[in-house]
Amino acid sequence: MAICDFIDTCPFLNKMIINLPINTHELAETYCYGDFTMCKIHKVAMVHGIDMVTKYVAPDGKYELSDRVIDLVLWGKIGW
User: Where are the domains of the chain?
Assistant: First the structure.
């Protein structure tokens, strides 16, 4: 099975997935340990570097949210 080159540094896999619902782990199975060439994070990292990947983004690109929205959803607060 193919494994993504950015598995150790991916912000989704190493930081964000911890706070998301369990069904989000299916994204990791599909993209990180499967067809990672279709992953939005992988595509950005290959062109611009892993440091340029948006902090809150899912492999399918559906969870690209601002820090403030994430704080509101996960912690019930807005980081003003």
Answer: 11-75
